[in-house]
Amino acid sequence: MIRILRIVPAVITMVVGWFTLLTYFVPGIAVARYVLVELAIIIAAFALILGWFNLLAVHSTHIVRQHSGWFYSFVLIASNLVLVPLAYIWDALLVGRGQSLAQLGVSGIGMVELYKYILVPIQASLAALLPFLLALAAYRTLRMRRTLGAVVFLLTAILVLLGQVPLFNLTILKDARDLIVRVLAMAGMRGILLGVALGITATALRILIGADRPSSD
Amino acid sequence: MPIDAAQVAGLFLIVVFGVFIAVFAGGALTGHRPTLRRLSGYQALPGQLSRAIEAGQSLHLSLGTGGVGGDDTATTLAGLSVLEFLAEEAAATETLPTVTVADPTALVMAQDALRRAYIRQGNPSAYDPRSVRYVAAAPLPYAAGTMDILTSEEISVNVMAGVFGSEAAFIAEEGSKQGLVQIAGAADIAPLAVLYPSVNHLLIGEEMFAAGGYTGDKPAHIGSLQAQDLIRWILVIVIFAVSLSALAQQLGALLGGAAP
């Protein structure tokens, strides 16, 4: 009995997988695919609740055991417990002033504003560090890993960057950049993407024939 | 809705691919195993957790921002194959790897992969679901949270296998700063470019999807690697043939033949 139960997830995955594939080729049953996608979204929503509990459990443990950086865990939990109700109070006040629920939208105005004015600027600050980080990583690569591949990688990156700016009006730099980006890099990218497409198809087929069972033994 | 030629071609390719996988997997089952080319990422992976444990530290695996159920499913499953391999090694010890995710569906799958490994090894009491952590939903907060884990916890090996964007640079750079052994794999172009300078071993594109064949020695995975190679050669020949035919047409038009 237990053995049968163990293969149930794999059987469900195979049946739903084949059926979803079939919807692309059999006219008239395509609508069933949207129903399945909606079901998947509902299941994912439950997973989000589990994720939230996981977040609280991990960071509560950090605070209780006074792990290194426990204060950040405290800030995270406090933000979670204060900002979410605050957003709903904000929305409730707006409704009290005569705004309809439809005007608030699915996320609510409070939540969107908090996201826009707190999270987005923090994320933008972090993203702004990326070019400096990459320059540092490139410099370190040249120092630590003096292989032909690393040298070619760095020289190409420098050439592309120089070709991007109108430096001394040197058209040769722009031409070199175009050659790298449009021909050499594009050929490499297409090769990689072709391999990825084959890898994805192989993964899907292994699941469809039951050779790969990521959710059961 | 009529079926067009592209759909028929797609279906044909899927069927042919499936038959090739079945044939090669059957061959692998009966002992006809090909010699797989060396991939430094998979060569470096075995024993990393044991070495980390010997040093009194642990291993971190980042599954990236992808989940199961959307476009990123296959790449996330490839990352989960790496986790399954590491989980088998971890389950024989008392040290759990730290796994970070940014998608709740990946959280559930990763917890399940880890739990099953501990049950298989007869050590279910050592399993702690909190070793898999849902860090954040968006890429940059996920990177920030993962950087904090690499800085504040006793970690000596950083493995990144899954869906990443340019935020991967932050995680890999932090790992590099901490002097960690770093093995990373990504299917997209942007993370590959930013990971290259910082990690010790990089799995490029389709190499990510070969995890089961290299780490698990599973016949179906080895069969699918052979099938991929065969299909790739067929596609290369078709691309060359179509290109040469187009070139011949252009040349014919240039030399005063038929109109292009």
Walk me through the structure:
The mean pLDDT of chain A is 86. Chain A folds into three domains: 1-67; 73-128, no CATH class; 131-208, no CATH class. Chain A is mainly α and 217 residues long. Helix content of chain A is 82%, strand content 0%. Chain A has helices spanning 2-23, 30-64, 70-96, 101-104, 109-128, 130-144, 148-164, 171-208. In chain A, helix 1 crosses helix 2 (30-64) and helix 2 (30-64) crosses helix 3. Chain B is α/β, with parallel strands linked by helices and 260 residues long. In chain B, helix 7 links the parallel strand 4 and strand 5. Chain B starts with a helix and ends in a 6-residue tail after the last helix. In chain B, strands 3-2-1-4-5-6 form a six-stranded parallel sheet, with helices on both faces. Chain B has a domain at 40-216: 3-Layer(aba) Sandwich (Rossmann fold). Helices cover 56% and strands 13% of the residues of chain B. The chains are: A mainly alpha (217), B alpha/beta (260). The interface between A and B is large, with 63 and 73 residues.
Question: What's the helix and strand layout?
Answer:
The complex is a heterodimer of chains A (217) and B (260).
Chain A (H helix, E strand, L loop, with lengths): L1 H22 L6 H35 L5 H27 L4 H4 L4 H20 L1 H15 L3 H17 L6 H38 L9
Helix pairs in contact in A: 1-2, 2-3, 3-5, 7-8
Chain B lengths: L4 H25 L10 H5 L3 H7 L3 E7 L8 H19 L6 E4 L2 H17 L11 E3 L4 H14 L2 E9 L4 H10 L3 E6 L2 H7 L5 E4 L6 H6 L2 H36 L6
Parallel strand pairs in B: 1-2, 1-4, 2-3, 4-5, 5-6
